[in-house]
Amino acid sequence: MLPYPQIDPVALALGPLKIHWYGLMYLIGIGGAWWLASRRVNAFAPTWNKEKLSDLVFWVAMGVILGGRLGYVLFYDLAAYIAEPVRMLRIWEGGMSFHGGLIGVMLATWWFGKRNNKSFFELMDFIAPLVPIGLGAGRIGNFINAELWGKATDVPWAMVFPTDPQQLARHPSQLYQFALEGVALFAVLWFYSRKPRPTMAVSGMFAASYGVFRFIVEFVRVPDAQLGYLAGGWLTMGQVLCVPMVLGGLGLIAYAYKRQAAQEAV
């Protein structure tokens, strides 16, 4: 068993002002995505300046934060937030939904594209390889917060989390998700998008790959206590939400290549 590194969730305290690691992880994710986007933007939109790119990153970041928070409220714990609405503002305590954030990003992308003569999927294909940076940083934030831990296990790298009332050795599922949703997903999308792909294909690869990685990790991650297991006692809400992502992603890839072949045959 490995000892859990006791990291104070508060990175910096200046009197009553407290800066949490969880919030800093979001800044790292957004900053990293902006940096990578700035290196790739010339191939995507040669006429764009830094201001245009910053606008895109800003609206996507708003989609992540607002969509992620609202998605968690709606998908995972609606009754608790209705009972205490002020909890919605306590983002530093955790409680963000990837699937809600994805919907927020899609809406922000659609809005931005309509005003900048870019199609929805052109923008989504550009954004998709940037997303794993934020996903990976967010999972490190979960680990520092000692939240979203895994099931009890006897594997040599198991940890006892201070927030676990049972104090059992558990899978550090946050680190599994960092490795898969952050590192592995970044590698898949980076190498896949290095060559020209038909529009929609990179978006489809993102959806399918993330869905598979998340579905796998959910088998060792403890589901949210207020929901538990669904579908006969073995699926989690995260897995249920990933199924349409995988199917939709594969469908997008197939359609993208089929459409490209049809266009080339004309």
UniProtKB/TrEMBL annotation:
<feature type="transmembrane region" description="Helical">
    <location>
        <begin position="199"/>
        <end position="217"/>
    </location>
</feature>
<keyword id="KW-1133">Transmembrane helix</keyword>
<feature type="binding site">
    <location>
        <position position="139"/>
    </location>
    <ligand>
        <name>a 1,2-diacyl-sn-glycero-3-phospho-(1'-sn-glycerol)</name>
    </ligand>
</feature>
<feature type="transmembrane region" description="Helical">
    <location>
        <begin position="237"/>
        <end position="257"/>
    </location>
</feature>
<dbReference type="InterPro" id="IPR001640">
    <property type="entry name" value="Lgt"/>
</dbReference>
<dbReference type="GO" id="GO:0008961">
    <property type="term" value="F:phosphatidylglycerol-prolipoprotein diacylglyceryl transferase activity"/>
</dbReference>
<keyword id="KW-0449">Lipoprotein</keyword>
<keyword id="KW-0472">Membrane</keyword>
<feature type="transmembrane region" description="Helical">
    <location>
        <begin position="120"/>
        <end position="140"/>
    </location>
</feature>
<dbReference type="GO" id="GO:0005886">
    <property type="term" value="C:plasma membrane"/>
</dbReference>
<dbReference type="Pfam" id="PF01790">
    <property type="entry name" value="LGT"/>
</dbReference>
<comment type="function">
    <text>Catalyzes the transfer of the diacylglyceryl group from phosphatidylglycerol to the sulfhydryl group of the N-terminal cysteine of a prolipoprotein, the first step in the formation of mature lipoproteins.</text>
</comment>
<comment type="pathway">
    <text>Protein modification; lipoprotein biosynthesis (diacylglyceryl transfer).</text>
</comment>
<keyword id="KW-0812">Transmembrane</keyword>
<feature type="transmembrane region" description="Helical">
    <location>
        <begin position="175"/>
        <end position="192"/>
    </location>
</feature>
<dbReference type="GO" id="GO:0042158">
    <property type="term" value="P:lipoprotein biosynthetic process"/>
</dbReference>
<comment type="similarity">
    <text>Belongs to the Lgt family.</text>
</comment>
<protein>
    <recommendedName>
        <fullName>Phosphatidylglycerol--prolipoprotein diacylglyceryl transferase</fullName>
        <ecNumber>2.5.1.145</ecNumber>
    </recommendedName>
</protein>
<keyword id="KW-0808">Transferase</keyword>
<feature type="transmembrane region" description="Helical">
    <location>
        <begin position="19"/>
        <end position="36"/>
    </location>
</feature>
<feature type="transmembrane region" description="Helical">
    <location>
        <begin position="96"/>
        <end position="113"/>
    </location>
</feature>
<feature type="transmembrane region" description="Helical">
    <location>
        <begin position="56"/>
        <end position="76"/>
    </location>
</feature>
<keyword id="KW-1003">Cell membrane</keyword>
